[in-house]
Design a protein that fits this description.
Length: about 220
């Protein structure tokens, strides 16, 4: 089935980033249809699952046939998989999804990145980025064969995480912000909402491919260096 220019697949549909991207698409692009792919449709907000522009598809990350049904007729797939403790899933799961995209002639794949530019890192320099490097390498191979276009969105860190207590920067009870250096160093960051809005714009633009920095879209209030 040939891709429809206004149908976007979003895998990992029940995650926060997927919810924010969906909200941005429905808010700003009334013509866009969304195929939401998830393991547990019951976890999707009823206000979203009942929206006339949204179709929910149940699929495990390893179920190629179910993924292909969900991807059929779409012009881009946004992967919103996130598991910081299972790098095998982040790589193997995306490879299955990428292969399903290729089988259904989906022209563009937006990888689950939303982070710093990891291209200068060697494997092992920053273990949390290893899956992104592996997926990028896999997409490089598929793209070199003309099978799909890859998209990687660079947002630096999420602002919400920087202010979270577990990172150690902010102590809300004491009203303290802890830092290393002179205090004049810049922290590159983007809110999840801004990153989602940027991703929505990228998803509907067939020319937006490769590595894209969030700040390059000047009409969105993105905050990154």
């Amino acid at each position: 089935m040939p891709p429809t220019a206004t149908t976007i697949a979003i895998a990992g549909f029940t995650g926060k980033m997927a919810r924010l991207i969906t909200a941005a698409l429905l808010r700003d692009h009334a013509e866009v249809k969304i195929h939401g792919i998830c393991r547990s449709p019951s976890k999707v907000d009823p206000g979203i699952s009942s929206h006339p522009n949204v179709t929910i598809f149940q699929a495990e990350s390893s179920d190629t046939n179910a993924l292909r049904r969900a991807l059929s007729g779409t012009s881009a797939c946004i992967c919103c998989y996130l598991n910081l403790f299972d790098s095998d899933f982040m790589v193997a799961g995306q490879k299955v999804l990428i292969d399903a995209c290729i089988a259904e002639a989906v022209p563009r794949y937006i990888a689950s990145d939303w982070c710093m530019d990891f291209r200068g890192l060697a494997f092992g320099d920053h273990p949390a980025k290893n899956p992104m490097k592996a997926v990028h390498a896999y997409l490089d191979e598929r793209e070199s064969e003309g099978e799909i276009k890859q998209v990687h969105i660079l947002t630096a860190g999420f602002m919400e995480f920087y202010w979270a207590s577990f990172l150690g920067y902010v102590d809300a009870e004491k009203g303290e912000f802890t830092y290393y250096g002179t205090g004049d160093e810049k922290l590159d960051m983007t809110t999840m909402r801004d990153a989602a809005s940027f991703t929505a714009e990228v998803a509907i633009d067939p020319s937006a491919n490769g590595f894209l920095n969030c700040e390059s879209l000047v009409d969105l209030a993105c905050h990154c260096g």
